[in-house]
From TrEMBL:
Domain Transposase IS200-like, chain residue ranges per copy: 9-123
GO terms classed as biological process: DNA transposition
InterPro entries for this protein: Transposase_17, Transposase_17_sf
GO function terms (MF aspect): DNA binding; transposase activity
Naturally occurring in which organism (per UniProt): Candidatus Roizmanbacteria bacterium RIFCSPHIGHO2_12_FULL_41_11
Name of the protein this chain belongs to: Transposase IS200-like domain-containing protein
Length: 219
């Protein structure tokens, strides 16, 4: 049976996620992480999109992307295919690296985007890799709060987290506040290949558009 269409909107925000096949590690050395990040930067030049949040974990990754004309599937297919070829070549293996196709969550802007970014940046803490999310090497948190110059993230992230020291400090505090919160409700979003995170109005609009595309594809 063919897979259903993804939630596709122009200028949409997505949280994309994928893990290694059978939950196996996809990053075995620092070189692997750096290759993935390098490819992620290169694709920003090739396709029209913005990156607002990234965290690479040993056996999975999280990325927040705003698409424009290039569909999310095209961007992610280029990224995962390139990395899979590198990984198999480096470790002299064959077969898939990632578990199925990537999962994506269509995000409503503002507080919903910020809540998911909190979840992303706290992944290393919740996994017991670090106690301080700022110390995790393979996330974009330091860029997001102004402690490092923009390299991976887009400068227009200031629309979401602010550009003054005060607003950046408030966003940093927001991330740390999540350490004492229960974020398991967000885990449920990753049980489905497609999900929507936003107000009821936003979710209803997204699902109506999704069903129209699905019915058209299967007509």
């Amino acid at each position: 049976m063919p897979r259903g269409p993804r939630f596709i909107f122009e200028n949409a925000f997505y949280h994309v996620f994928n893990r290694g096949v059978n939950k196996q590690p996809i990053f075995l050395s620092e070189r692997d992480y750096l290759f993935f990040l390098k490819k992620l930067k290169e694709l920003k030049k090739k396709y029209d999109h913005s990156i607002y949040c990234v965290c690479l974990m040993p056996n999975h990754f999280h990325i927040s992307i705003q698409t424009r004309k290039s569909p999310i599937s095209k961007i992610m297919s280029s990224l995962t295919t390139s990395y899979s070829m590198y990984f198999n070549r480096t470790y002299k293996r064959v077969g898939p690296v990632f578990q199925n196709r990537f999962k994506s969550i269509l995000i409503e802007n503002n507080e919903y985007f910020l809540k998911l970014s909190q979840y992303i940046y706290l992944n290393p803490v919740n996994a017991g890799l670090v106690k301080d999310p700022m110390l995790y090497k393979f996330s974009s948190m330091r860029e997001a709060v102004g402690k490092e110059p923009f390299s991976l993230l887009d400068e227009d992230i200031v629309r979401l987290v602010g550009e003054t020291k005060r607003t950046q400090k408030a966003y940093e505090k927001f991330i740390y506040d999540g350490i004492s919160e229960n974020l398991t409700e967000i885990d449920i979003l990753f049980e489905k290949e497609e999900a929507v995170f936003g107000t009821n109005k936003f979710s209803t609009m997204a699902n109506k558009k999704y069903m129209r595309r699905k019915n058209k594809n299967y007509a």
